[in-house]
Amino acid sequence: MHRRSFLNTLLLGGSACAVGAGGLPEASAMAFEVTKTDAEWKKQLSSQAYEVLRHQGTERPYSSPLNDEHRKGIFSCAGCAQLLFSSATKFESGTGWPSFYRPLPNAVQTQMDTGFGMERTEVHCRRCGGHLGHVFNDGPPPTGLRYCMTGVAMTFKPA
Predict the structure, then answer these.
(1) Which of 61, 131, 151, 154 is the most exposed place for a label (fewest CB within 10 A)?
(2) Phi, psi (degrees; rounded to nearest 5) at 151
């Protein structure tokens, strides 16, 4: 089952969690501000961005140019242009994916991901529900969080 189907199932069942692990905001099953048909998403996004944002895919580590982006600026959702992360919160995690210790206010939502036999916290764009990556509790101060994002799911605009 794809994440989108799961969220729709939650919506129809009327159940949604209000708080995720570690007090992070939880992705709810309510409608997103930006919604499109599958065909519209396919037309708008590259095949790789479509697979990540709409079907919880990922990219090979160290393959995204955004991993090496060190200029001041803002990282946004490739699906809907929601502002997600400031470059001021980006750090080198050594994982091969762009990593941040804090999203911008009201930028993302989370939900539990139990795929691949693991329990992780999945990160979504608040506006379109697009899959961005996962958040872990092994990041630097001041939050101790590591938002490990898939570069193809984002764009960057220098300041």
Answers:
(1) 61
(2) -60, -40
Q: In this predicted structure, what is the pLDDT of residue 30?
A: 54
User: Catalytic residue positions?
Assistant: 148
How far is Cα 137 from Cα 120, in angstroms, rounded to an integer?
10
Residues 6 or more apart in contact with residue 105 via CB below 8 angstroms: none
- Calculate the alpha carbon distances from 75 to 63, 80, 88 in Å: 17, 12, 11
Residue spans of the domains in the chain: they are 3-11+35-158
pLDDT tens-digit readout, 27-83 = 445 578 999 999 999 999 999 999 999 999 999 999 999 999 999 999 999 999 999
**In this structure, which topology does domain 3-11+35-158 adopt according to CATH?**
2.170.150
